[in-house]
Amino acid sequence: MLSIAHGATGAFIASKIPNPLISIPLVLLSHYIEDRIPHWDVGQGLTAKKKSRKAAFLQELFFDFPLSIIIVYFIFQAGHPFDWRVWMGWFVGLTPDFLEFPYLFMDARFFPIKQLAAFHGLVHRSTPHKLWGLLPQLLVILLVILLK
Ligand SMILES: [Zn+2]
Q1: What spacing in Å lies between the alpha carbon of 83 and ligand 1's midpoint?
Q2: Can you tell me the distance from the alpha carbon of 85 to that of 14, in angstroms, rounded to the nearest whole number?
Q3: What's the mean pLDDT in 21-47?
Q4: Prior bond of 18 cis (ω within 30°)
Q5: Which residues 6+ apart lie within 8 Å of 104 measured at CB?
Q6: Which of 2, 6, 36 has the alpha carbon at shortest distance from 130?
Q7: Across the strands, what pairs with 39?
Q8: 45: alpha, beta or left, given left = phi > 0 and alpha = psi -120 to 50?
Q9: Using one digit for the tens of pLDDT, what is the confidence trace for 2-11?
Q10: 79 CA distance to ligand 1 centroid (A)?
Q11: pTM recorded for the entire structure
């Protein structure tokens, strides 16, 4: 999924479960579970070479990544004192994608980057249809807003 969904989910879990020893593994698990749902993300078309690396990178850098920070801020932090758990959850929620970055964008093909990317690819389900691919992510964010 997009960082906006993973980040919001991670922040949600980490804000609800105060013990990081429990929340961190759950946030990581949530990333792979969410990626299992067919979705559209900025990497869509990258492996099939239908999209350039540069286009995907720029979409992530200027749209998805900053928006994930803004969304998490407005859902959890606006008008509230700084909560490190929220931002830890955001970070851990994005970590599997951070770890895949060198594989996708820098041709890193060595242990453990290669194996992590292979696992990520195994659970990852995407769709080229933007509407159907964005809808589950909007629902995730809506659920986080309703349940927080
Ligand atoms: Zn992912």
Answers
A1: 24
A2: 6
A3: 94
A4: no
A5: 43, 46, 53, 56, 117
A6: 2
A7: 126
A8: left
A9: 999 999 999 9
A10: 30
A11: 0.95
